[in-house]
């Protein structure tokens, strides 16, 4: 018997026994750990007199949020507070993604520029930002830009354009005037027609002709807009901030100090990483491509736009995706400077209700789905680019 | 734009005006760019100078220096901190020369530093004297490493290093926390840069093996193990770090029996480790994928068993290939320790915040945050410089 067992386990044992044995063992271990944690959790919750369930979300929140894109008051429910926090998060993530891409690409291009000064300034910027923590940068921006200003009247005023005070920033902004929807309809119609013509191409003459038609259409649109501006029928108007007699800023696009500090911090921080990605990718395009483009007589700007950048884009997109994800996840640092994003709302809720399991679960689900959404979108884009679709 | 890595024709000595013409004023757009940069530089530089000369009050730094370094660690136990610094610097010095050949320049720099500090100590001040001693101690460590490597070049120093590190870490923890004959010091008094470095070093040390295991699991042919590893890695990478740290602070006590409550610092380390391991696993996986299958096949043909193939052939090559990515991850982890400030650990960032709360230094944001940032910067930049030297020695990307 012993010999049989020994033989089975040591020599005669077929590989599939090992394979399945290991897997079953690991599975048992994981399940056991889960069960152990769960038992303790149930026991601890009983001890603390808590139950599990999402019913508490309907209760009155009882706290106020510093800012809310939609109406919120302390009598609203926890669920509504979460929703408002989520909108606040999306607001800063959306704006951050756009701004950081622009700044990052610009810095990356500066990193390979012929201009010695621009190249080295970009280098210094990247090295300073990448080697200090984002949280510290947020504290720095919030403290220096806003907290150190005296409360009351705006400390920095560019009359009609920008006011910066302890509470936040007011900017001159473009707004839609009442008649704008007609223009919107008109523009959509024009764009739709153009798209149909572009795809269908009912005229001979190939790409040159297509460009001519598209250029003509866009020129017409711009000309009508200019005409509308001149005659006072414009769909867009300026909303300029101004100081009222009490030294309070009225009008304009008004952004809270917390929002601006968070947006600036996320943008400046992520841009340094994107700049390095862009620079590395540009340098990774084979030397022959640069030389061939130069030999064809392309000027530096055309060479970059037509030859180098489209190829670099294929290298850029995968790491860029992870930087986008980082920005989205880092937006949760909002809590450090008091911007009421999803994470901040969740923490406050947890402190008030003690519902750790539910709140943490909710938080993780939301952030995971956002990450999956961004990753999915970027993967679609990546497939397009790798196929040579966009260039 | 310059073409990357282009072989330039034989270098010609440029005059100053030629250099300017080529690098700053080549075309009109280039000139414009230069002027814009200069204007920006002048503006920022002017602001900094004005602030330094008129407004800056560096007393907030100098009076709180001890808080920045070690926080509220008991004054009477300061000798233990010096002991830790001695152990750490000695360990680092020996490791450095065992990995990287010693240059005379480095040695001279440390000797000079020691002498300068010695001179300071003559003018008064025990601290300078101790630092001077430390510098000479480092010189000794560097020389010892060099000596050992030359005397016994065949010994596997690379594999002995972890042993040395673990010993140093255990001693450090004993000196810090006390017990076994020393006065116990609660973790609430481990603050400042000391805590930041401690958190980073321990988390790096723990997440590295965990990351390798996860990477191997993800490439395993066993579906259950692979699936679990994928779920863990992708799940962790989809979460914000602050969420994970928060979970470690709030959930860990709930899933453990009440009799087994973990210390706050330990919970912070758990959070950091679990998070960082997922990212490290992806880096290591990249390295594993870069190893051609011929390597494994050749090793198997030589009759090596599976663990030996992995340990002797695949992993060393894979890890060497991803050293830059690993160091990048470690630097990230070092910076990420700052997030523990939010969940209540008084590390460097949080120390800066609490110094700002002192009534006589209220509103000194620039001074405190710039100084804190400088400390982080020196640590991170030093790490990346060191990694570049090690890369050069191990010839990453050259084989």
From TrEMBL, chain A:
Membrane-topology descriptor: Multi-pass membrane protein
User: Where does the chain cross the membrane?
Assistant: 20-38, 92-113, 134-160, 180-200, 212-233, 253-278, 359-381
Query: Where does the UniProt annotation place the signal sequence?
Result: none
Q: Which Gene3D superfamilies match?
A: MetI-like (1.10.3720.10)
Family annotation (InterPro entries): AA_ABC_transptr_permease_3TM, ArtM/GltK/GlnP/TcyL/YhdX-like, MetI-like, MetI-like_sf
GO MF annotations in UniProt: transmembrane transporter activity
CDD domains, alphabetized: TM_PBP2
- Localisation: Cell membrane
Describe the family membership recorded for this protein in Swiss-Prot or TrEMBL: Belongs to the binding-protein-dependent transport system permease family. HisMQ subfamily.
Q: Which PANTHER family match?
A: AMINO-ACID ABC TRANSPORTER PERMEASE PROTEIN YHDX-RELATED, MEMBRANE COMPONENT OF AMINO ACID ABC TRANSPORTER
The protein, known as:
ABC transporter permease subunit
């Amino acid at each position: 018997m012993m010999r049989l067992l020994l033989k089975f386990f040591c020599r005669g044992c077929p590989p599939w026994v090992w394979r399945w044995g290991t897997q079953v063992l690991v599975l048992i271990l994981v399940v056991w750990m889960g069960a152990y944690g769960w038992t303790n959790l149930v026991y601890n919750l009983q001890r603390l007199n808590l139950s599990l369930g999402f019913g508490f979300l309907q209760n009155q929140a009882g706290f106020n949020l510093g800012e809310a894109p939609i109406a919120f008051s302390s009598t609203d429910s926890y669920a509504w507070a979460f929703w408002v926090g989520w909108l606040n998060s999306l607001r800063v993530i959306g704006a951050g993604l756009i701004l950081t891409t622009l700044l990052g690409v610009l810095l990356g291009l500066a990193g390979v520029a012929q201009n010695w000064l621009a190249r080295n300034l970009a280098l210094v910027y990247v090295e300073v930002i990448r080697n200090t923590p984002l949280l510290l940068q947020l504290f720095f921006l919030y403290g220096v830009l806003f907290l150190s200003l005296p409360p009351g009247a705006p400390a920095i005023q560019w009359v009609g354009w920008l006011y910066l005070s302890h509470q936040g920033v007011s900017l001159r902004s473009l707004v839609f005037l009442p008649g704008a929807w007609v223009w919107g309809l008109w523009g959509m119609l024009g764009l739709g027609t153009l798209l149909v013509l572009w795809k269908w191409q009912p005229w001979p003459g190939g790409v040159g002709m297509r460009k001519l038609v598209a250029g003509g259409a866009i020129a017409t649109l711009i000309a009508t807009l200019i005409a509308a501006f001149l005659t006072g029928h414009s769909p867009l108007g300026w909303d300029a901030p101004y100081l009222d007699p009490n030294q309070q800023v009225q009008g304009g696009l008004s952004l809270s100090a917390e929002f601006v500090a968070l947006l600036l911090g996320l943008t400046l921080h992520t841009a340094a990483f994107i700049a390095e990605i862009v620079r590395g990718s540009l340098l990774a395009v084979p030397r022959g491509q640069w030389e061939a483009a130069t030999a064809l007589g392309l000027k530096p700007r055309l060479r970059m736009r037509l030859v180098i950048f489209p190829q670099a884009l294929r290298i850029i997109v995968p790491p860029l995706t992870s930087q986008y994800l980082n920005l989205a996840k880092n937006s949760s640092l909002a809590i450090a400077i008091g911007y009421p994003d999803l994470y901040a709302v969740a923490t406050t809720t947890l402190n008030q209700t003690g519902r750790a399991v539910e709140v943490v679960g909710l938080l993780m689900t939301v952030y995971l789905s956002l990450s999956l959404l961004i990753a999915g979108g970027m993967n679609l884009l990546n497939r397009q680019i790798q196929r040579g679709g966009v260039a | 734009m310059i073409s990357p890595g282009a072989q330039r024709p034989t270098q010609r000595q440029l005059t100053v005006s030629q250099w300017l013409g080529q690098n700053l004023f080549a075309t009109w757009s280039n000139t414009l760019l230069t002027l814009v940069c200069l204007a920006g530089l002048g503006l920022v530089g002017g602001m900094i100078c004005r602030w330094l000369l008129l407004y800056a009050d560096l007393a907030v730094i100098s009076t709180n220096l001890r808080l920045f370094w070690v926080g509220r660690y008991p004054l009477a136990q300061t000798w233990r901190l010096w002991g830790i610094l001695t152990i750490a610097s000695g360990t680092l010095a020996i490791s450095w020369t065992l990995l990287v050949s010693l240059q005379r320049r480095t040695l001279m720099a440390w000797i000079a530093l020691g002498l300068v500090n010695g001179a300071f100590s003559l003018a008064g001040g025990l601290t300078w004297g101790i630092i001077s001693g430390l510098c000479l101690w480092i010189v000794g460590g560097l020389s010892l490493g060099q000596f050992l490597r030359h005397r016994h070049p065949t010994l596997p120093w690379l594999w002995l290093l972890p042993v040395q590190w673990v010993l140093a870490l255990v001693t450090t923890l004993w000196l810090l926390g006390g017990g076994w004959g020393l006065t116990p010091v609660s973790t609430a008094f481990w603050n400042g840069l000391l805590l930041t470095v401690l958190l980073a070093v321990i988390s790096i040390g723990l997440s590295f093996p965990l990351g390798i295991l996860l990477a191997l699991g993800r490439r395993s042919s066993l579906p259950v193990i692979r699936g679990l590893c994928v779920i863990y890695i992708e799940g962790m990478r989809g979460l914000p770090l602050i969420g994970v740290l928060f979970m470690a602070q709030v959930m860990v006590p709930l899933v453990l029996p009440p009799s087994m409550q973990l210390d706050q610092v330990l919970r912070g380390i758990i959070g950091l480790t679990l998070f960082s391991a997922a990212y490290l696993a992806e880096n290591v996986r990249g390295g594993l994928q870069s190893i051609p299958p011929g390597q494994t096949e050749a090793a198997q043909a030589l009759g090596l068993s599976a663990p030996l193939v992995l340990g002797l052939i695949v992993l060393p090559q894979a890890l060497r290939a991803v050293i830059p990515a690993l160091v990048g991850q470690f630097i990230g982890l070092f910076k990420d320790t700052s997030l523990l400030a939010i969940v209540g650990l008084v590390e460097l960032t949080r120390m800066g915040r609490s110094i700002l709360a002192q009534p006589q230094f209220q509103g000194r944001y620039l001074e405190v945050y710039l100084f804190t940032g400088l400390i982080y910067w020196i640590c991170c930049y030093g790490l990346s410089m060191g990694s570049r030297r090690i890369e050069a020695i191990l010839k990453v990307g050259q084989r």
